[in-house]
Amino acid sequence: MTEFSQNQDRDWIKQRFIIVSVCILFVFALLFLRLVYLQIIKGKEYRLLSEKNAVRLKSIKSPRGLVFDRNKKLLVDNRPSFNLKIVLEDAGEVQETVKKLAELIAMPFQELMDYIAREGKGSVYKPITLKNDISRDQLAIVEAHKFDLPGIHIDIEPTRYYIYKKTAAHLLGYLGQINTKELKTGKYPNVKSGDSIGRYGIEKSFENYLQGKQGGRQVEVDASGRTIKILRTIEPVAGLDLYLTLDLDLQQTAEKSLENKAGAVVAIDPDNGDILALASNPSFDQNDFIGGISSKKWNALMSDPGKPMVNKAIQAEYPPASTYKIITSIAALEENHITMNTTAYCPGFLKYGNRTYRCWNKNGHGELSIINALAQSCDVFYYQAGIKVGVDKLGQYAMGSGLGKKTGILLGNEKKGLVPTSAWKKKLYKESWQGGETLSVAIGQSYNLVTPLQMAVLTAAIGNGGTLYRPRLVKTIKDGHGLVIKKNEPEITGGLPASKETLDIVRNGLLKVVQGERGTAGRIRLKDIEIAGKTGTAQVYSMKTNDKRKAEDLKYSLRDHAWFVCYAPAKNPVIAVAVLVEHGEHGSSTAAPIASALIEQYIQGPFKEKI
User: Fold this and answer.
1) Where are the domains of the chain?
2) Known catalytic residue: 5?
3) DSSP assignment letter at 63
4) This model's pTM is above 0.90
5) 569 alpha-carbon distance from chain centroid
6) Catalytic option among 81, 322, 401, 446
7) What are the φ and ψ backbone dihedral angles of 107, each rounded to 5 degrees?
8) With the C-alpha atoms ordered 225, 226, 228, 231, is the resulting torsion angle positive or negative?
9) How far from each other are the two terminal CA atoms of the chain, in whole angstroms?
10) Taking a C-beta distance cutoff of 8 angstroms, is the pair 343, 368 a contact?
């Protein structure tokens, strides 16, 4: 081979080497640039994605605060709930996984898919709750098939437990799942989608205290979403505990007394406004709402003619009937239309204009002073007193005594009742007030409307000498270690528009209602306890004069409501009670015995030392 040929071969090899080297350098340059792009430019994004695939943040639900009665008896507790959830990213073929789950736990496939469609619009890593509080059998099935159900897991979380079913349901309330609109308001910083908040009663009113602060756990998971390792935990902070003014034993007695009746019972401490009992019947079981109430149960509650979801103590309004004669008495005495010695004659009726207004005692009461008129509940006496005072002055004294406005109790949807005046009628009906309407107002009929709680607050004020208190439900709020976080002091909202002399006269009349020989509630007299009170029968249906039917012949819905308000002991009261029994007909025979039983239990029980 010539030297020329050898040089040619070397040049060719050199060219090929250069070309190959350039290609190799080019490939490495591409790899380097790709590495720079992945590690530097997109490094943070891919690092986060990688961590999401391997590391998850799981929230730990905080237990709600507990609720105790005034004697530290536990009313509302927490128990473990097994909640079925799915993480879409880990579930593989979601429909196949859910279909298999539905077959195993006997739940409708479409119902489960609807939950996913509704709640799964966010991150695919967010656990979606398929069913809260599954049964022990369902729990066992899911655990036995967990390797066949990727992405499906069960969280053990605290859930509410109401120890005494239906007891104080309207006062304690219940929980319900928070919705998207509520989450966006920012009012619930410690609540996430799928969590529950108070929907009714003190569960709602004291939500900010009862709702704790959620914790969290950083965990490493495998491809199916199963936890491999716990990396870090932040413990949740439990909600604060409420110590109520409620007396559980008294509450249960009040509710038992309303069995097979519709109505309300309110017992209050005249010295401070503490609610000792607040019962409304029919009631409901708050435990039915845990995990979401079924459509069947909800429809049953809504269609019940007794309206169990209405708190009759604060949301139902009734004519006060003869219990309103307390107001008429105060107004007539304060306006100097009558004195303690003023008398009026009752023949059983009063003619006014072209109408005859009758007394409940058709034979008449004869000559009466105000004390005996209160004791015997003489309508004719109060017809005449009402005419002298006039509707507008009656309204002024009623409003001053706490009627026609909310008491301020910390429960939702309290009604304010109605105090009629001539201006009110003119505005609403475009009609002038008629004199005959004043007669009906004076005895608690006509447009008058009150709630049982309003009448309890008024009666307590009569008993304590004239002080109106805001009803108090929660005495103290404590943390889990018993440290007092907040103490609610009694709150005075006003005073009755009555002098001591006027109140003494009214109190004497109320005392004779029970203790007097001809008092309308003499049958509830107790041996060692003097009760002062007032009966009332609120007319629901007006029977014509020539109607020969008896009250018991009327349809139940047309029968009169029965009222009784009272306090005891008469000289130094420690309890005031208002009882309303719907369609109970007579306050003396239906409502008064309920109040008497509560008084006897309370005074002879653990609070005897207060006497």
Assistant:
1) 56-242, 248-282+311-543+561-610
2) no
3) P
4) no
5) 31
6) 322
7) -120, 145
8) positive
9) 135
10) yes
